[in-house]
Design goal:
There is one protein chain. With 665 residues, the protein is α/β, with parallel strands linked by helices. It has two domains: 2-288, Aminopeptidase, CATH 3.40.630; 293-664, no CATH class. The protein has 26 helices and 16 strands. β9 (170-172), α6 and β10 (205-207) form a beta-alpha-beta unit. α1 (6-14) packs parallel to α5 (118-146), α6 (179-194) packs antiparallel against α8 (251-274) and α19 crosses α23. The longest helix is centred in the first third of the chain and has 29 residues, at 118-146. The chain starts with a strand and ends with a helix.
């Protein structure tokens, strides 16, 4: 952050320059990521006293901190324009008039052990004047550009000393506001905050219940800037221990996200009714420039985690040999699979993961987004490091989860359905499958390699870290199954891989938490929307859920195989494939996610635009964040989309299949 004089700061504002700076003398910081019509201030955030005043102050740091508003600057850091005080209110209070900004006695305590000199008073008052001159220049700039502006004046308050049982989490002080002119904006702000939710905290917002907004900032703006509204907002210190000053590290980011979304919602309302620009989305109110801290973290994370692809380490190397042995021993043998060795040190990897500078990211949504990715990769590496060991199942459950009661009931529901389609002959071998994939690839502006292999269990698999599609050398499928494979592996898995390569943020190439459920759900949805999903295929996905359930219940490999053959009438090859998929590694729970993913994909497809999910290896859970990043132009919309989204042809599914999927949804 640069150091600027008052004059340089004001000149930069007049020119419309975007910058981040600390004012000379260190009184406050100003960040302008984007010239929007609203400002966020935290004028009691500071804790600094200039050196010549430290020895004169009668209060220790803890006493000063108690009456200050620590972390309020952090609460607003996601927003595009922020003014954050760095000096303590005990040096000079920005929410008091110039004449009264330096305390002698306050809250029943004398502030100074020795009287301040006239010069010391003047220095403090000068800092007060500088703040308001810079704020005034900023308001003038925004009013000239947008016709009106808005200030969220954020404070915090100690609630325990009030001895009131039900104090509000948010208190809006309206005493100095023109309530006739700004009535609807104030009401909207209060309603928006009342809708907020926090984990383990009852949220309530009120106006003029605990504080009344009598501070100087509100009176200064009302006196000089008719077209600017200040919303003095006190936040209850639920995010910290008000007596010790210790922050609650899980509450602060959650509250920060609540304030970000609430401010954006209210700012949109203000924009519609009071500015000359009617914005339609929250994201357009935020900066379109990617923070350097985001790019730095993203680059380091990608360099660390690239190439860690789960199936590379979990697909058995000796699947063909063990299958022969299993059948030769009359199905009374649990295959002993071997796997590729992990070529990284999992302990060093986790240590490096948690050293990544995620705290440097100011935007709370993006910061939490990367935190989640880092946590997920830590669990993923634990899982890969335990392949073939007893602990693998535990780690697989941590990473993928397990079938819910709803998943199990959905699977049983589908398995109960009677077959209504004639079964197609399976005459297309691996070589023909490869040729069909190559022909399909030619229809897209991408380059992709297709190879035959003995080292996968599935009929085909697209590698998420490279442009490679593998075909099982022993595969033999029908024409409709071939089309389904192409739409599954190429039209979803490979296209999202290619899309991710063009993104500025490489996290979308690595994969977000929950990307397996999303990728497989979208891939099966693609099969369905192109007319290539069959009831038989749905039943296979359902049987994977059943097999995962049996494995978790500690059934051994032969028992699960025999139940699939005897109770569900699968042929032996199919039963072995499903059982091997689930028992590889020591208990791989991933396969239940295909059916859950399809259900979620259907729901999303019916209710919203799912195309942003194709920017890379994304997740349903992060669709709102992805949309925000696209609208802020931090990532590009997907260039390549599957046929079922781009085609104008309306697919009319079989009525029985449509009924089953609607019931499942």
């Amino acid at each position: 952050m640069q150091l600027l004089s008052e004059h340089a700061c004001i000149e930069a504002i007049k020119k419309g320059e975007r910058f981040q700076a600390t004012i000379e003398g260190g009184g406050f910081s100003l960040k302008i990521d984007e010239y929007s019509f609203f400002i966020c201030t935290a004028i009691h955030n500071g804790h600094c006293l200039r050196q010549e005043l430290v020895n004169k102050c009668a209060l220790d740091e803890a006493e000063r901190l108690y009456e200050e508003d620590p972390f309020t600057g952090e609460l607003i850091s996601s927003l595009p324009i922020t003014l954050v005080a760095l000096d303590s209110r005990y040096e000079y209070d920005l929410n008091r008039t110039l004449e009264h900004c330096v305390y002698d006695r306050v809250w029943g305590k004398s502030v100074w052990s020795f009287p301040l000199t006239e010069q010391e008073y003047k220095v403090s008052q000068h800092k007060h004047l500088v703040f308001y001159r810079v704020l005034g220049a900023l308001i003038e700039k925004l009013q000239s550009q947008f016709g009106a502006s808005l200030i969220y004046d954020v404070h915090s308050y100690n609630h325990q000393r009030l001895k009131i049982k039900d104090t509000p989490v948010f208190n809006i002080g309206t005493e100095q506001l023109n309530r006739h002119r700004w009535k609807l904006v104030i009401q909207h702000w209060n309603k928006t905050l009342n809708k907020a939710t926090l984990h383990n905290v009852y949220v309530r917002s009120a106006t003029d219940e605990v504080f009344f907004g009598r501070g100087y900032l509100a009176s200064f703006v009302r006196q000089h800037y008719r077209n600017t509204l200040v919303l003095p907002t006190e936040v209850k210190k639920i995010f910290m221990n008000e007596n010790t000053g210790d922050v609650y590290p899980l509450v602060l980011p959650e509250l920060k996200e609540v304030l970000k979304q609430s401010i954006l919602s209210n700012a949109l309302y203000f924009s519609k009714h009071h500015t000359n620009k009617n914005h339609s989305r929250k994201a357009v109110l935020l900066s379109s420039k990617i923070e350097s801290s985001i790019l730095k973290l993203d680059k380091q994370l990608y360099h660390l985690a690239r190439g860690i692809e789960t199936l590379t380490y979990i697909n058995p190397k000796n699947i063909a040999v063990e299958k022969k042995r299993f059948f030769a021993k009359n199905y009374n043998y649990s295959p002993s699979f071997t796997y590729r060795h992990l070529d990284i040190n999992p302990y060093e990897f986790r240590e490096k993961l948690y050293r990544l500078p995620v705290d440097d990211i100011r935007d709370v949504s993006i910061q939490q987004f990367y935190r989640d990715v880092i946590d997920a990769y830590s669990i993923k590496v634990d899982m890969i490091a335990s392949v073939g060991k007893e602990k693998f199942l535990y780690n697989s459950l941590r990473y993928y989860g397990e079938p819910s009661e709803n998943d199990n009931k959905t699977a049983e529901f589908l398995l109960f359905a009677k077959e209504f389609e004639p079964e197609e002959a399976r005459t297309i071998d691996a070589t023909e499958i490869r040729e069909a994939f190559l022909a399909a690839i030619d229809k897209h502006p991408i380059k992709c390699q297709v190879i035959l292999t003995d080292n996968i269990i599935a009929n085909a698999m697209a590698k998420s870290t490279s442009r490679l599609i593998q075909i099982n050398r022993s595969a033999c499928i029908s024409k409709r199954e071939l089309n389904a494979l192409i739409h599954h592996e190429l039209e979803v898995h490979m296209l999202t891989t290619v899309n991710s390569e063009s993104q500025k943020l490489k996290v979308f190439k690595l994969g977000l938490p929950g990307n397996t459920c999303t990728q497989e759900g979208l891939a099966v949805l693609s099969e369905y929307m192109t007319g290539n999903l069959t009831l038989r295929r749905l039943k296979m996905l359902a049987l994977r859920v059943i097999a995962v359930k049996m494995m978790i219940k500690n059934y051994d490999f032969p028992r699960t195989f025999k139940i699939l053959v005897d109770d569900y009438e699968l042929n032996q090859d199919e039963a072995f494939r499903i059982t091997a998929r689930v028992y590889r590694g020591g208990g791989f729970t991933k396969d239940f996610l295909y059916l859950r993913g399809l259900r979620m994909a259907l729901q999303q497809f019916k209710t919203c635009d799912i195309s942003p999910l194709f920017v890379g290896k994304t997740s349903f859970e992060y669709l709102d964040v992805i949309n925000e990043l696209v609208h802020r132009k931090m990532i590009d919309p997907p260039v390549l989309l599957p046929q079922f989204i781009t085609t104008k042809k309306v697919y009319c599914p079989d009525k029985v299949l449509e009924y089953l999927l609607e019931a499942m949804r």
